Amino acid sequence: MDKTTDTPVTGLREAKKQRTRQQLAATALELFLERGFDAVSVADVAAAAEVSKPTLFRYFPSKEDLLLDRFADHQDEAARVVRERPSGQTPVEAVHAHFIDALAANDPITGLCDHPNVVVFQRLLYSTASLASRLAHYAAREVDLLAAVLEREAEEAGAGGAEVGRRRLRARLGALYLVTARHELAQANWRRIDAGQSAAAAHGAAVADADMAFAMLAEGLDRTLPA
After folding, report:
1. Are 79 and 141 in contact (CB under 8 A)?
2. How does residue 157 score in pLDDT terms, banded at 50, 70 and 90?
């Protein structure tokens, strides 16, 4: 098959895979919300979606990933924000500003979202041990991607070859601190929502917490990570 026909066929195939993936995730979410995560098996999801278990596992490696797959879209977020920041802005400032903007938009990833569907989803997420454990896998990938950006910037800034080990450690620690801050702030915000506060009522405290958290990081990281 020549290139003129291969490209459209490939595009259609990928679109079909994406639709199947979305259907599986939507079906699983509906079942999890209806019955509870632990009460639903992979076989239940496959049957409801009218696919085989092997087919389901081709799209999602675990039952937890059926629910957490939407977090995959955010795994490169911190790395992208730092990589694309304006000249002269530090990594801490970039991640801080992005988080503040996300709070203003009530982005669910910040925990500050009181949309009923998001509230139910977050409650399921934070009340299920296996989901919380699997979420750590996504956070670890966030750290890896951000650390790679920070290490590359340090190398471009002229760190000596003898400092490769220390440069790598510094980048990884910086990434770990920034990603952990984002996740801890999100959980603090979710606790406010779960306690009955509206997103609007909790916004001021959420911003204050973010300002405090990133100020704590800036005192150390701004001296060690290149702007």
Report:
1. no
2. confident
One-letter-per-residue 3-state SS of the chain: CCHHHHHHHHHHHHHHHHHHHHHHHHHHHHHHHHHCCCCCCHHHHHHHHCCCHHHHHHHCCCHHHHHHHHHHHHCCHHHHHHHCCCCCCCHHHHHHHHHHHHHHCCCHHHCCCCCHHHHHHHHHHHHCHHHHHHHHHHHHHHHHHHHHHHHHHHHHCCCCHHHHHHHHHHHHHHHHHHHHHHHHHHHHHHHHHHCCCCHHHHHHHHHHHHHHHHHHHHHHHCCCCCC
Give the count of alpha carbons within 13 A of 215, CB side only: 6
pLDDT at residue 208 tops 90: yes
Q: How far apart are CA 113 and CA 103, in angstroms?
A: 9
Give φ, ψ of 8 to 5 degrees: -60, -40
Token pair recorded at residue 134: 């699997």
The whole-angstrom separation of Cα 222 and Cα 220 is 6
> Which of 10-14, 65-69, 178-182, 218-222 reaches the highest mean pLDDT?
178-182
The per-residue pLDDT for 113 is 96
Using CA atoms, how far apart are residues 36 and 127, in angstroms rounded to an integer?
Answer: 10
pLDDT band at 143 (very low <50, low <70, confident <90, very high): very high
d(CA 167, CA 158): 11
| pLDDT at 162 exceeding the cut of 70 | no
